Amino acid sequence: MEFIKNLSFETLVSILGLVGFGGIIGAFIGHLLQKDREANMQSRVKKIEAYSSLLNYSRGFMGDPTLSYEEALSYQQEFLKKFYNDILLFSSKEVIESVDKFFDTVSISHTNKDIVTDALFTLTESMRKDIGLKSNKIKERDKFYTVNTEDLKKKKGVK
Hints:
The chain is mainly α. The chain contains six helices and no strands. The protein has one domain (29-144). It starts with a helix and ends with a helix.
């Protein structure tokens, strides 16, 4: 206390001003960090929505037996729209390259389902990484569609 009594009025005002200024700076930095966290969360939500849609639209390239020819074409068109409208804006370079590789694969190797499936796995892994999820490291080439085509034909009345 003796130390404070020996300080001049100007020194005390300066110290209090610095403490107040430090508080203002601290609050400003905290505000900036909060806004950055909010922006990152909004970006992550937008990525998840875009990635979910893109993966759904990829069914148009995968020979999904539940889609008619017209539906498959529509899904392919929506895939491209989603790529240009969202993926290019919000995604990492790795995701964009994976989408490009997937599209090249389905354009060139549309008859080899294993290659197309591998390209889709690569795309999915890059998306998971981009939104901060761990890799699910799919080791096997599981079918994406578990629909029994014979049952589907029976339901549609096709022999």
